[in-house]
Specification:
Blueprint (H helix, E strand, L loop, with lengths): L1 E2 L155 H13 L3 H15 L17 H11 L4 H14 L9 H16 L6 H26 L6 E12 L2 E8 L10 E5 L7 E5 L10 E6 L5 H9 L5 E4 L15 E7 L3 H13 L6 E7 L8 H10 L3 E7 L18 E6 L2 H13 L7 E4 L10
Helix pairs in contact: 1-3, 1-6, 2-5, 4-6, 5-6
Keywords: 2Fe-2S, Iron, Iron-sulfur, Metal-binding, NAD, NADP
Family: In the C-terminal section; belongs to the flavoprotein pyridine nucleotide cytochrome reductase family.
Pfam families: FAD_binding_6 (PF00970), Globin (PF00042), NAD_binding_1 (PF00175)
Length: 525
């Protein structure tokens, strides 16, 4: 089970995308169109400047059209955003000009991708982006989609899985070219999709390949893949995508793969990818449609409190414009007015409150667009946008197992929420918290945690200061932990060493909940 990722060097983020959503944000996924709350000043080109339609070396992939519901006309336009409440003006961020991708000739593709059934509101998956606009260097933020960790391709599996894995092995060395060519095709053939993406796409680099590896690895593991894709589908409603966008993406994806995996590409391989992509996209479309019946695509949230705990860490509290249901330990994606269409993932720093307020712990990182805006520019009265809650790093209240929690840096935020959740349920199950930081200065929330310990006799809080971020080793000095469920939230190195330490002390892997290893190499911004 994977959960929200947090970094000592990054703002609190999602659980496994720590989301990825990302929603980073997301997560990861197949592609990530973005929808701006309002057009950015000056506008942006919807088609790569100077790009010309590629010359196909044969038959090009047939146009893919979704099958509309009886009596319903397919719409290609993204849903109109709700009017944004008036927010306080702030420094304007100007992305650099867009790069000009030049598509290369595409290899012919023989199969036609089956059309996806139209659902009310689709959710495109997240992928890596071409190096289009050059913008301030940033550290990609950990995502928290519940993404399984990719393993080495196995020679065993269904025929489709084997062909997909062979393709992935073939394109591995040229992943950057595949990604750039994919976006060149997408924006040249379908320029109407360009406005759905952020102006600067450098932070999305490599996400496509990671998402493909994940899907390829788990194509035969229906339960894991379905849960992952449904989460992406629900989370991506906020980008304003439609069911008819999926065929466009599939067409360009297969066009890119067929060009760069020519050594293993044949009709059977293409058919395998068509079936795989059709399955994946339909799961996401259906999940988005189901979610539309019970929740909005996004929420507006007004900043009501901004508490600067250290020069680079702030606790930001917001009031959503309508009820926002979530569970302690989950995360959300967040967009600021200073960086439209740039979403980042943050975990809730408390259990659901009676007043409906939501709090986030944010650490500004060098060149971090969203984190610096939230820490240094956000003030009461500013209005943000929130995506749907996600993540499964939650407490199982059907058992009385103890909780062993490891929180590093701003990763203490969801850990505190879990403690509050246990307290609100009136349970007296033991909860052991290890709060790690590189310096005493970074233990910015230690007073809050110690007050909770004084209030609840079943809670034990142990601060661990280690400039090498190896504090999970301290867990070995205590225990035994065989009757505990473990929760980890923090930077990549802490997660890796933490999982090893917990397994060494006898906690089964199935009882260890943590961030998505798929994006542990990323840092937040």
């Amino acid at each position: 089970m994977f959960e929200a990722r947090h970094s000592m060097d990054a703002p609190t983020t999602t659980s496994a995308g720590n989301g990825t959503s990302g929603d980073s944000g997301g997560g990861g996924g197949w592609f990530t169109p973005r929808k701006a709350p309002k057009p950015a000043e000056g506008g942006e080109q919807t088609q790569p400047e100077g790009s010309e339609p590629e010359a196909a070396e044969g038959r090009r992939v047939s146009a893919i059209r979704p099958v509309g519901r009886p009596g319903a006309a397919a719409s290609t336009s993204a849903p109109e955003a709700r009017p944004t409440p008036e927010a306080r003006s702030a420094p304007e961020a100007r992305p650099a000009p867009e790069a000009r991708p030049t598509p290369e000739p595409e290899r012919a593709a023989e199969e036609r991708i089956p059309a996806a059934r139209q659902a009310a509101e689709p959710a495109p998956t997240q992928v890596a982006a071409q190096s289009a606009p050059q913008a301030p260097a940033s550290h990609p933020e950990p995502r928290s989609e519940r993404v399984p960790e990719p393993r080495q391709p196995s020679p065993k599996g269904s025929p489709d899985a084997i062909r997909v894995q062979r393709t992935m092995a073939e394109i591995g060395p040229v992943a950057d070219k595949v990604t750039s060519y994919f976006y060149a095709l997408l924006f040249t053939r379908h320029p109407d999709l360009r406005p759905l993406f952020p102006a600067a796409m450098d932070t999305q680099r490599d996400r496509l390949l990671k998402a493909l590896l994940t899907a390829a690895e788990h194509i035969d593991h229906t339960d894991v893949l379905t849960a992952y894709l449904k989460n992406l589908g629900r989370g991506h409603r906020k980008y304003g995508t439609q069911p008819e966008h999926y065929p466009a993406v599939g067409e360009c994806l297969i066009g890119s793969l067929s060009r760069y995996a020519s050594a293993v590409w044949d009709e059977e391989t293409e058919a395998a990818w068509v079936r795989t992509y059709t399955t994946i996209s339909q799961i996401m479309i259906d999940a988005a449609a189901a979610d539309e019946l019970r929740a909005p695509a996004w929420w507006f949230a007004e900043v009501v409190s901004h508490d600067l705990r250290t020069p680079d860490i702030a606790v930001v509290t917001v009031r959503p414009d309508q009820p926002y249901p979530f569970l302690a330990g989950q995360y959300t994606s967040l967009e600021t007015p200073w960086w439209p269409r740039i979403w980042r993932h943050y975990s809730f720093a408390s259990a659901p409150r009676s007043d409906g307020l939501l709090s986030f712990h944010v650490k500004a990182v060098p060149a971090g667009w969203v984190s610096n805006a939230l820490v240094h520019h956000a003030r009461p009265g500013d209005v943000l946008r929130l995506g749907a809650p996600a993540g499964s790093m939650t407490v199982d209240h059907t058992t009385d197992s103890g909780l062993l929690c490891l929180g590093g840096g701003t990763g203490i935020a969801p850990i505190k929420a879990l403690v509050e959740d246990v307290a609100e349920h009136g349970e007296r199950r033991p909860v052991e918290v290890f709060y790690g930081a590189r310096t005493d200065h970074d233990l910015y929330d230690i007073d809050t945690m110690m007050r909770l310990q004084q209030t609840h006799p079943w809670l034990s809080v142990r601060p661990v200061v280690d400039d090498h971020a190896q504090f999970p080793d301290a867990v070995r000095e205590y225990g035994p932990w065989n009757e505990y469920d473990a929760y980890l939230s923090g930077p990549p190195g802490m997660i890796r060493s933490g999982v090893d330490a917990l397994r060494d002390v006898g906690i089964p892997a199935g009882r260890i909940r943590h961030d998505s290893v798929e994006e542990l190499v990323a840092a937040g911004d």
